[in-house]
């Protein structure tokens, strides 16, 4: 049987599978009755972790797990993952291939699509099967201004999907699945040498529940401390818009927006951020948005639930005072 | 070193207007300029050229009215600008675009390194860098935040894998897709406005236009444009149309309102 079933690429370059891979298995289970065939997962891992990773992938929804084993040293090598994913696709011949839209996934998946000559859709927010049985991919474009629904005319349909858009399914460790261990030879693996982790991330904003974000309204690097204090009092992560990173006041890992992180916290407090389209693209899906700004005509006002017109320093200090005082 | 820079002429995302009804971009509302991410690729190309000498060739695929963006690239330091422009290229998705760009690079002949921005502000896909590298059979690395070192044979970069930044060495020729901000060795790369004299020079410079026939010996014309594109947009709509109906308050009343919201959301007790 050709071009049936769904293949999920389980991202594992560090020794543990990225949770977005499990979210995709949950989505695959939901779609499989309309697609037909099996839910496959494929993973590159070291010998010692084959059993652990296979069990995990079955528990989260895979019927069949296609495993490629490598030496520990080659685990973060993208050349190996490229060859493995191409091999898994030619083995499973799935109708749909889902890959987490992490930087890693967004780097490997398009190469694989070009290698096998199929279409690929980036950073999807949803995937559904329409009344004709076609796979439809939903994605933002134009810095989040446009939402497009896209079909692919070739097989397999390939999509990278933004982490966090599908819920994490409940794992069931009593689920039964088949494990298929396959070998691949990787020519030119030495054309890319991964020398090691050079820097850990300061923070993963995409996982934050509460975010306090600052922008141009902050007047000096020293002043960042005040807002850091406010973030701490709210058990929030401190974030910023692009200008503060460009000026070297904040680390790039704290930047929210099109060229930074896309976030979806329970609460997003924007202090002194006017709301350039690139910033809005990164935070507009937050559940509740509070904006503090001196300018009521700032674009961010339109995307907020609560807008406070005032001086961000004054309001931050009063909030800190209230949060610390006994009456609160 | 022979350096190739991929430049996408894109509408200025802060000025462009959207046709809310049709869910498309009003192409007449903003002129085409260099994709902001690609400006960093030009700057890094200039730094590599300073170290090793050589030429910087830019390649773009766009309609004829993108020419001013390419003159801007010349003013910023590109030695030779090539515009792939033909009705037969129109309607291309990322696969067909990458196929065409790769064909043009093959046509150029020798190259040592290809630089591009990690993604464009209009397409947002980040596909073209990796796909061009695949078509050329060379290694690539995306989401690069630092060029640590470069020799004639290898480049060492820091790249964002998602969970952490990794140090990666690539054998040249290779394709490197850059994030912003990006660091070249120890220096923050900041695109600067070109000098007036360079703008004037660029006005007189030649932008080479290649059509589909120019690539006939290195490519299969059925893979260009819409015909070579496996993906189709079946529906599109404007995403930001519905704002939220914000409650607007001022001063101390604002502080109370925020505290209230914090309590209601369970952020504070």
Give a short account of the largest sheet of chain A.
7 strands, parallel
Question: In the CATH hierarchy, what is the class of the largest domain in chain A?
Answer: Alpha Beta
Spatial separation of the terminal alpha carbons of chain B: 62 Å
The total count of strands of chain B amounts to 16
Query: Order of strands across the biggest sheet of chain A?
Result: 5-9-4-1-2-3-10
CATH topology term of the largest domain in chain A:
Rossmann fold
Could you write a compact summary of the structure shown?
The complex is a heterodimer of chains A (328) and B (269). Chain A is an alpha/beta fold.
Structure commentary:
The complex is a heterodimer of chains A (328) and B (269). Chain A contains eight helices and 16 strands. Chain A is α/β, with parallel strands linked by helices and 328 residues long. The model of chain A has no long low-confidence stretch (mean pLDDT 94). With 269 residues, chain B is α/β, with parallel strands linked by helices. In chain B, the strands form three sheets. In chain B, strands 1, 6, 7, 8, 9, 10, 11, 12, 13 and 14 form a ten-stranded mixed β-sheet that branches. Chain B has a two-stranded antiparallel ribbon with strand order 2-5. In chain B, helix 2 crosses helix 5 (196-204) and helix 3 (94-108) packs across helix 4. Chains A and B meet through helix 4, strand 5, strand 7, strand 8 and strand 11 of A and helix 3, helix 4, strand 9, strand 10 and strand 11 of B. Strand 8 (146-152) of chain A pairs antiparallel with strand 15 of chain B, so a sheet runs across the interface.
Helix and strand topology:
The complex is a heterodimer of chains A (328) and B (269).
Chain A: E1 6-10, H1 19-35, E2 39-45, H2 50-59, E3 64-69, H3 78-92, E4 96-100, H4 103-116, E5 120-124, E6 126-129, E7 135-141, E8 146-152, E9 157-161, E10 178-182, E11 192-200, E12 210-214, H5 224-233, E13 237-240, H6 242-246, E14 267-271, H7 277-283, E15 288-293, E16 306-309, H8 312-324
Parallel strand pairs in A: 1-2, 1-4, 2-3, 3-10, 4-9, 5-9, 12-13, 12-14, 14-15, 15-16
Antiparallel strand pairs in A: 6-7, 7-8
Helix pairs in contact in A: 3-4, 5-8
Chain B: E1 2-6, E2 9-11, E3 17-19, E4 24-26, E5 32-34, H1 36-52, E6 55-61, H2 67-75, E7 80-84, H3 94-108, E8 113-117, H4 128-136, E9 140-150, E10 154-160, E11 164-171, E12 174-184, E13 187-189, H5 196-204, E14 207-210, E15 231-238, E16 247-250, H6 251-264
Parallel strand pairs in B: 1-6, 1-8, 6-7, 7-14, 8-12, 9-12
Antiparallel strand pairs in B: 2-5, 3-4, 9-10, 10-11, 12-13
